[in-house]
Structures are given as structure tokens and as C-alpha cells.
Amino acid sequence: MTATTTAPAPLLEVGGIDVFYGRVQALRGVTLTVSSGEIVALIGSNGAGKTTTLRTISGLMHPTGGRIVFDGRDITNTKAHEIVRFGICQSPEGRRLFPRMIVLDNLMMGTYARRDLSHVDRDVARVYELFPRLKEREKQLAGTLSGGEQQMLAIGRALMAHPKLLMLDEPSLGLAPILVETIFRVCVEINQQGTPILLVEQNATKALEIAHRAYVLETGNVVQHGTGKELLASPDVQRAYLGM
Amino acid sequence: MSAISQFWRTGPRRDPNTIAYIVLIVVGALAPIFLQLFLGGTATFWLTVFADMGVYILLAIGLNVVVGFAGLLDLGYAAFFAIGAYTYAFLASEHGIVTPLHEAFHVPFWIVLLVAMFVAASFGLILGAPTLRLRGDYLAIVTLGFGEIVPRVFKNASVWTSGANGVSALDIPALPVWIQGPWSGDPFAIVQDFKILAPLAYYVIMFVLLILCVILVRNLHSSRLGRAWMAVREDEVAAAAMGVNTVATKLYAFAIGAAFSGFAGTYYAAKLSLVSPENFGFSVSITILVMVVLGGMGNIAGVIIGSTVIYSVIFIFLPQLPDYATSFVQSVGLSGLTQSSGDYPGIGEFISRLKFLVFGLILVVVMLLRPQGLLPSRQREQELQKGVHEDTTIVDVTAETA
User: Fold this and answer.
1) A229, A185, A234: which is closest to A211 by C-alpha?
2) Is residue A3 part of a domain?
3) What's the pLDDT tens digit per position in A63-122?
4) Which of A40, B71, B252, B256 is buried most, with the most CB atoms less than 10 Å from its CB?
5) CATH number at residue A179
6) Is the pLDDT of residue B193 over 50?
7) Nearest to B377 by CA among B191, B197, B233
8) Cβ contacts (< 8 Å) between B241 and chain A: which residues?
9) What pLDDT sits at residue B334?
10) Which of B2, B221, B244, B400 to mutate: most A Cβ within 10 Å?
């Protein structure tokens, strides 16, 4: 295992997980780690298994082999709703908001798993500070938001859970370039405020620019692993994912 | 804490129908007095009708938990109604003698109300458990099956249920004599322990039962569980990702929804003093569903109004329609139409055959004019005005496979 050398006990340790959809194997011994303070990117083409990896970490799917340890606790077969309580929250692929609830309602759903509700005001204010657009749309149904606003809401909702690890699945998908900039800028900001991020992206350039470390997935295997800068400079990655 | 408590009270999930509730309570409380004043002798008849209407309101409130709050389409809700009714039949009649138990039970009505609630809730869990993996149309079909099976079991397990004859001569509920009031008949009768209920007493009981259930359901709706139901209804995967235990949440919806029909079933059986498998068919399930949808899914006041309207149409307006038609043609001087001739059976019979066509037309017209229901929940109203499309955010989970 080529675990990170920077942190002795990573926050999240995914050790050689195998995941199947029926009889189709989606992940083949995927191993990755996320340490506190990091942004880790997971890049790869369509169908490489990026989303499956996130879904498995968050407990929506369970691996047939390997194990997942989070914060010193084995969560390999833990159910999704319990994993949220342990501190992993994700903004799922396709955003998956509650379309017929207003923006504020969606944010409040993010606090569902929290035991300590003492700073909810402050947390809502923080999300509005990161995404001022959401404040304007506070009383609007989530389903009526634009794509970019929905993505902001999905990230904001995940933040409301006070996650120890934030997982973002394709936050830039289908967004205008200027909004992509905003989303990535906020990701860095969230990270600087102390929340580690595991980021799945097809927009490899952007993801590698902000990531401390990154993994490249290909047909369910981790084929490359390094710092964001290393991978940006790697000829293989450039050819396959950066269109150079 | 302040944001939570403040927001969840003032937010959009708050029932905005204070006026509707006040009107319903005032009308409900004053109805007996007005009926007595204006109708005199026939007042009792109408009190009985309204008490029966209450049964359907109760059922609609319960189904609204399952369909309106949690978004689980249940086409077999009458099954729980049947289970509630048969619970009373077993626990409060001589019927036990003819079953293999050879022992009759006479549990008081008030206790059976609670027992039936738990029995129906347990069957809610039994139905819920195997259907948890199903959604939408598939779930609807399974509940439909359950709704067909239950009355059939009561019909065919004749050793226990007397089959198609049903169970009759159920105990008449009685009030302890020390609870005095206009319903207690002879206020000087202190020798007996119990007083048998009068139509007004049935009405009052139903009224109180309804108020209790509405308070209960409203609190549930604004509770943490209510939020979880809403989240599951909107998007199950997202709900799970927020930490909602979707399995438990859906089971609660089935169990709590069923519990209300346990109440309704017990009351219905006690009032009618008879249960028969014929009373709990598919059409009952559909009628209740129509009440919920037409009244305004998810909104308790709307559901109450919907069930009042539908009940009045089916059980009061439609049966009298032939009479209305007959007196109408007579008043416009076309008495000839009331005579039958050849294939034409006379206006009364003719209209009587068209009753359900009229009912269907009423439903179609109402849903075209008010697709959100008579008194919709605020969400549904906004959604129809602003056009939220489900597919803007809901993406097929299985689409991305590696």
C-alpha cells in the first residue's frame, strides 16, 4: 500500500475495496486515504468508478472485499444513515436536493443527523456567506433554482451536517464556467476553514489545481496517485484527461 | 436552538389553515344544536350520518400520513380498517364462543380502541416490511394485493370469522354512568353501571376522537419524524445521505397510518354492531384515497374537507339524486317523464343508473379545476404554480455503473 507519508493516521482509509453491481465488478481493490486538512481529488473518465467509490464510502453500497476505516472506526458495512452520524456527509451526484422544500428547509435537513443544534443560526449564516445567492433564494423551492444554485445548495446542505469529511460528487457538472470557478473557490475556502474534502470530478484540470493529492481511476482500478501538481505534470494524465 | 425552533414553527411546513380548523371545530360543535333546532325529529338521523362521515374522515387522516406525508401510495388501506373492525368483533361479542377458543370476550369499547390501534399498527409493520424495497407503482400494486387478501381471509377463514356472514351482535359501547351529560339519557339511573350510547353520544365521541387525532397528526407532521417523512417522499437517497433511517421512517408511516384506521374500524364496528368482509373492499380503499387526493394531499384540513365533500356526494347526494330528478321534472311540468315506457324506466330509475357517471364527472371536474386539491398543502400549491419538475433533480441512481 502506498499510503500517504504526510499523516501517520489518515482520517479516512479505504483499503482495497471490491464492489459489484450485480455481477459486474465496478471497483477492483480501490485503495485511498484522506487526511485531515486535505483536498483529495478522484479523477477518471465516465464509468471509471468514481461515484461508486463515494457511494461505497457513504454506505449507500457495501463492498464485498476490503475495508473502510473512518476516524479509527471500521465503517465497511455500516448503514448510510449511521455513517452520516459519524461525520461523513456528501453532496451526492446529481445534487439530489429535496425539490419541493424551500432552500432553508433543505439546509435544515442537513442538520438532521446532528446531535448538537446549538449553532444552527451561525451555520446557516456561514453557508449564506459562502453562497450569497442562497440567501436571496431562501424562501424559494429548491426545484426552481438554477443548476448552479442547486449545486451551491447541495454543498451548503452537506456543510450543515458539520462533517468531519465532506465528499463532493461532480460539483461542476453542467455548470457555466463562471459558476465552476465559484464552486471551486468555495471548495478551497471550506477546506481552509478546516474541513477535509474528497472531491470526485470529471473536470480534471480544475480538480488537480486545487487538490493536495489525487487518485486516477480507470475501470475500477487506481492507476495513478500523487500530489495534484505531480499529476497535472504527468504525461499520461495530460494525454488522457487534460486534453493536451 | 432558536433558529430551529423559530424556523420550524414559522416555516412552510406549518399548517397554514388556522381558519379552516376554527370553522371545522365550530361547525362540528354546533351542528347538533342547529340540527335539533331546525330539523327536530330527524336530527338524530343526521347525527348518525355525520358520525359515519367521521369514520371516513378518520380513515382519510390516517391514509394521509402514508400517502401525503411519506409519499407511499397505498391502495389497500381498507385492509387496516377491516383489521380494526374485526378486532372489536373478536374482543367485544359472543362470537368467541363459536371459534375454536370457545370463549367470548367483552372488552369495553374504550380499551378496544387502543388495542385495535396497536393491532392495526402491527399489521402496518407486517405490510411495510416486505415492501420497503419497492417504490411508486410497484408499492401500489403490493398494497393493492394486501387490500384484496385481508377481506378474503376474513371471508374464508370461516371457523374464526363466520365467513361471509360476518360477526353480528357486537357489544354496544357504554359510558360509565358517572360520566353525566346530555348523552347519558336518564340522568337518575344510578343503579346500572353503564349507559348505552345514543346517536348524540356517538357523534360526540367521533368529534372528540377527530380532534385528538388531528392534534396528534399535526404534531407528528412538524416533528423530526415528519421531516424525515417529507425527505423520504422527496428523495430517498438524499434522505439517507442526510442521515435519515429510511427503513424505520417508512415503517413508522405504515404503522402510524394503520393505527388511525384501527380507531376507525373499532368505532365503525361498534356503531354498526356488525362486521362483514363485504364492507372493506377495494372501493373503500379507493374512496379514501380519493378523499385524500381531492382534499389536498399532505394537508390535514384539506383532507378533512375532502372527505366531508366526497362522503356527502357518495352517501347523501347520489342516493337522493333520482328523487331530485323526479321532483324537478314534475315541477317543470314534464310529469310524463316519470312514467316508464318500453326500455325507458322512468326518470327516477334512469338517473339512478347514471349515479356513478355523475360521481365520475364530479371527480373529473374537480381535479381539472383544482389539481392541487380543494385545500392544498403550501408545498404542493407552490409547486403547481412555479412548476417544479421532479426530473430537475432526480437522477436515476443506477444510471452510473462502472
Assistant:
1) A229
2) no
3) 999 999 999 999 999 999 999 999 999 888 888 899 988 898 899 899 998 887 778 888
4) A40
5) 3.40.50.300
6) no
7) B233
8) 58, 60, 80, 84, 89-90, 92, 96
9) 80
10) B400
Q: How many of the other CB atoms lie within 10 Å of CB of B69?
A: 25
Does residue B195 register a pLDDT over 60?
A: no
Average pLDDT for B163-189: 67
Residues in B closer than 8 angstroms to A90, CB to CB, are 241
Beta carbons of B66 and B55 less than 8 angstroms apart: no
> Considering Cα of B215, then B220, then B224, then B227, what sign does the dihedral take?
negative
Please indicate, yes or no, if residue A150 is contained in any of the structural domains.
Answer: yes
Q: Which residue of A has its CA nearest to B232?
A: A98
- Residue of chain B with shortest Cα separation from A151: B393
How many residues in total does chain A contain?
Answer: 244
CB contact under 8 A, A157 and B242: yes
**Whole-number mean pLDDT of chain B?**
83
- Residue ranges making up the domain that contains A217: 12-241
Q: Match domain B2-390 to its CATH number in 1.10.10, 1.10.3470, 3.30.43, 3.30.1300.
A: 1.10.3470
Tell me the pLDDT tens digit for each residue of B318-348. 988 888 888 888 888 887 777 777 778 888 8
E strand spans, B161-305: 167-168, 174-176, 194-196, 274-275
Residues of chain A neighbouring B238 (CB-CB closer than 8 A)? 92, 96-98
User: For residues B117 and B261, what is the distance between their CA atoms, to the nearest angstrom?
Assistant: 8
Q: Which residues of B touch A60 (CB under 8 A)?
A: 237, 240-241
Residue A7 lies in a domain: no
Those of residues 131-160 in B touching chain A at CB distance below 8 A are none
Number of domains in chain A: 1
Q: Is residue A4 part of a domain?
A: no
Give the minimum alpha-carbon distance from A102 to chain B in angstroms, rounded to a whole number: 8
